[in-house]
Write a structure and sequence with these properties.
- The structure holds 2 protein chains of 2 kinds.
- By secondary structure, chain A is an all-alpha fold.
- Helix content of chain A is about 75%, strand content about 0%.
- Chain A has 2 domains: about 50 residues; about 170 residues, MetI-like fold (Orthogonal Bundle), CATH 1.10.3720.
- The radius of gyration of chain A is 27 Å and the shape is flat.
- Chain B is built from 14 helices and no strands.
- By secondary structure, chain B is an all-alpha fold.
- Chain B has a single domain, classed as MetI-like fold, CATH 1.10.3720.10.
- Helices cover about 75% and strands about 0% of the residues of chain B.
- Classes of the chains: A mainly alpha, B mainly alpha.
Amino acid sequence: MASADTKRLTAVDRKKKNKIEKNENLAGLLFVSPMLLGVSVIVLFPIVATFILAFADWKFVVSIDQLKWVGFANFSALLQDEKFIMSIINNALFIFTVPVTMIFSLILAVIIDKNVYLKSYFKVAFFMPYISSVVAIAVVWQVLFHPSAGPINQVLMSFGIDNPPTWISDPEFALLSVAIIHIWISIGFNLIVYIAGLQSIPKELYEAAEMDGANAWYKFRNITFPLISPTSFFLLITGVIATFKVFDLIAVLTQGGPLNRTTMLVWHLYEMAFLNLEIGYASAIAVVLFLFVFTITILQWFGQKKWVNY
Amino acid sequence: MKLNFRKLASTVILLFCSIAFLLPFIWMLSTSFKIEADVFKYPIEWIPSRWNALENYKQVWFGDQPFYLYYWNSIKVAVLTTILSVVVSSLAAYGFSKVRFPAGRWLFLIVLATYMVPPQASLVPQFILYRQIGLFDSHFGLILLGSFSVLGTFMLRQFFMGIHHDFIDAAKIDGAGHWRIFWRIALPIVKPAVATYAILRFIWTWNDYQNPLIFLRTDALYTIQLAMQKFTTINGEFYSLIMAAAVSAILPLLIVFILGQKHVIDGIALGGVKG
């Protein structure tokens, strides 16, 4: 009798449980469906289409039935494309902005974290370029870099440098000029993340080192630097990925010139797709861009455990 | 006492560094007040000797490319994108963290995976799609492009995960459904995180240049960034005017940032440390 009762009870319970599970499923799907739908239409479907279009020859101006499948022709054309090669080289060179930004930011972070008054003023001041419109900033720097009359060259000339570089119009200095502005913009972000990282280092470690008579450099070298390495690794990866996405600065300042010295993958892609209307070719560039960023992200996943001291 | 003196000295030194760092902004502001002939005067006049501020700003705001129109466009796009994005992301974040359904984990991985796609890699098909379904050259299309943020979903999910499951279960026993729990309990708890994300999304949308450049064509729909670029092309050598335009493009954001600086800085710091 008793056992039949429990059996009936569990049957009712199971039914109830099933109903709850069913409700949970429905609720879950309802909550996530707007995001899922949006991401599918705006990101997933287009990225799949990019991979397909990369094997086609098609121009925007003609109708879709004139689309021709060309296999790997777009990719082999890329290897002959001087501008594409220059873009890869410039992208590679531009990666150097990342460690430079990180060094400046770490020095500033160490000073601001421990050794100054007005902490929040400094955070806001160094963060300002990061939240400002890149277009406006680019325009301001363009005037600052003005070859003959710009303030930067006037200062240089007053210090006795007779032939200062013409910066963004000088093939030798154009990429450097863009890099300087990019570093100036990125310092704020790196700084804030570093300060947060520094605050998570236990104070006892420094106190112990002080008791042993360690100087500031020793403490930085043996405590701060190793313990901040997860933050550094994060900044390195996000920084490198960000260099692959630089577009506004190039579009406003140099349009890839002079002599292709500042062209980059994203700019080349934009030119091919929206100025030359070469859909297939631009998609092939997009695939290369995707593969670069994808590889770096994979490196991050595996590298995090291997190279970082926690 | 000795320590305080050292702290004071480094504050003063860093103060000079920060001013040097901000010189481009100071130069921009001061130039926007000048008459054109004084723009490149050397030594630089940090405080203009001849003022022309009113004229310059009047020209920018009510001249041939009236900034008030582009301001309105930018405000509309940025505000609506922020609202939509916060709604979509917080719903998804709740679903992925507080509703226990088997498909959730897989769906979350799919959403997260799209974060690896650089936005430019999907630009061309997006453009074709927008032309096909009639979203090209419209504010609505632009707003949709910025409204499905993986970053926002991920960030808010982290915060929802901080709410204990027992809390949710207790509410369920009292007869509340997920919608009520979300609206009445979970969302109010993560309000600070929502504010942080909303401010960041507003800043990013306001500053976005690439999407308006590609997805808008009609001049009357231009956002402030496109207008800024166009203004520069048209007014080529009138640097005082261009600087007045630049100040106008940056200022509203600066105000948003300074009002919400704690939210912004904490949000960036948190995102950074958590990876």
